[in-house]
Design a protein that fits this description.
Length: 471
């Protein structure tokens, strides 16, 4: 190590930081990690894991109702919010302890305190000590933003606090149209809360495939969520028994909780990065190259703090790639294309690859295949639900560019489809694959009817345009 206290100092013990620390320690380097909250980061403590546990809890609402169609007679079910919160806390504490134990086994000790960067090779921890490091890795993740900035904003909660409410709200206002907002709207309406969802935009899930956005919107409405588009709160007033919220058009709504879910930002405030000369973008994200290195040769960053793709598996892959690149002698870039992902509404949305809009902008000829059908389970349960599937194909090479599914276990399907899309599978490969019957997934390999074909054409100096020809 020469004159340095450690080879690597990691700031943040979330998924990316923990993976990097363990792999670097495995390469024989001396590692030290600092975490000011709880080991495990957003995903384990206040993100993916507790959210998915609440998704499961909410879906029993539908399962109990559906059982009657299959001959089951049940007493009227009841729900205990406090019991769910306690069970959730027990599980995330168990997982956090596993993360901590894995660091110890890897000989990567952890400091339970805040750490800030002083210069290219120095970190200052909360007790005032200065620790020198050959390399510094910033893996502090992201944090919710409280926007819009309106009077009374301080009364609202975010996705950080939603998991530990002392009581289940009878009435909740959720602000936002992204995946966090729609997921919690879907969860709480099934747990028995009357949910109103408001957003600036004209539809939910900006950036996702348009037909899937419409499907999620309709499913939320069918579940009982009251949705208002083009509306935001302008004032939040605290009352003795809750909050009175004034909305854009002047109407007021009385609720027990206001949750703001309008986005997340990289968690770089007060880390000292600017003082050390590290370049940040306008949102505060750490600017990095393909190997996660900043403009300072000794400082790297991975995960949500870089604002590349804010997903836990991406942070883990980036952390591992950093370790192999800097300490393993194996330069490794992370491919951020064709990343499978899911939105855990009910039904859930699973997606991988390009949307129809993205494909039309990038390819000369695009074939679109769509299917909408009632899943077999719904025929006896009587539930009014549809499964939507969409395959986006390069009309020239026949390569599958994207697959989008709204239905049960769509996230599970997206994971396996991610392999096929990454390997460059063609629509003919899907067609030649034998179906598993009866399943919803068989539609992916039996879909033969092209719903539309799109051709890009030159329209002179005005640039590219799109012409549609129905198939």
């Amino acid at each position: 190590m020469g004159d340095f206290d450690v080879d690597l100092f990691v700031i943040g013990a979330g998924s990316g930081g923990v993976r990097a620390a363990r792999i670097v320690a495995g390469h024989g380097a001396k590692v030290l990690v600092a975490e000011e909250f709880r080991v495990g980061g957003t995903c384990v403590i206040r993100g993916c894991v507790p959210k998915k546990l609440m998704v499961y809890a909410s879906r029993f609402h539908d399962d109990f109702a559906d059982a009657a169609g299959f001959g089951w007679s049940l007493a009227a079910p009841s729900f205990d919010w406090r019991k769910l919160v306690a069970a959730k806390e027990e599980e995330i504490s168990r997982l956090s302890a596993i993360y901590r134990a894995n660091l110890a086994k890897a000989d990567a000790p952890i400091l339970d305190c805040r750490a800030e960067v002083e210069d290219a090779h120095t970190v200052r921890v909360a007790d005032g000590r200065r620790i020198s490091a050959r390399t510094i890795l910033v893996a502090t993740g992201g944090a919710p933003v409280l926007e819009p900035d309106v009077p009374g904003r301080e009364h609202a909660i975010t996705s950080n606090e939603i998991f530990d409410l002392p009581e289940l709200p009878e009435r909740m206002l959720i602000v936002g149209g992204g995946y966090i907002a729609v997921e919690f709207a879907s969860i709480f309406v099934r747990l028995g809360t009357r949910v109103t969802l408001v957003m600036r935009g004209e539809n939910v899930l900006r950036g996702f495939d348009e037909e899937m956005r419409i499907g999620v919107r309709d499913a939320l409405i069918d579940a009982g969520v009251e949705i208002e588009f083009g509306i935001l709160p302008t004032r939040i007033d605290k009352r003795a028994n809750g909050f009175s919220v004034t909305l854009t058009k002047g109407e007021r709504i009385d609720v027990d909780q206001v949750m703001i879910a309008t986005g997340r930002r990289p968690n770089t405030f007060g880390l000292g990065l600017e003082k050390a000369g590290v370049e940040l973008d306008r949102l505060g994200a750490v600017k990095v190259d393909a190997f996660s290195k900043t403009n300072i040769d000794s400082i790297y960053a991975v995960g949500d703090v870089t604002n590349r793709v804010a997903l836990t598996p991406v942070a883990i892959r980036e952390g591992h790639a950093f370790a192999d690149t800097v300490f393993g002698g194996k330069p490794t870039k992370v491919d951020h294309a064709n990343i499978p992902t899911a939105v855990f509404t009910t039904p859930e949305l699973g997606t991988v690859g390009l949307t129809e809009t993205e494909a039309r902008a990038a390819y000369e000829c695009v074939d679109i295949y769509c299917a909408s059908f009632r899943p077999l389970k719904a025929t006896l349960s009587g539930r009014k639900e549809k499964t939507l599937m969409k395959i986006v194909v390069d009309g020239v090479s026949d390569r599958v560019l994207g697959v989008h599914i709204l239905g049960h276990d769509a996230g599970e399907l997206a994971q396996t489809l991610g392999i096929a899309v990454r390997l460059g599978a063609k629509k003919a490969d899907f067609d030649e694959t034998m179906a598993v019957h009866p399943t919803s997934a068989e539609e992916l390999v039996t879909m033969r009817t092209r719903t539309a074909r799109y051709f890009r054409e030159s329209i002179g100096e005005e640039g590219p345009g799109a012409a549609i020809m129905d198939a």
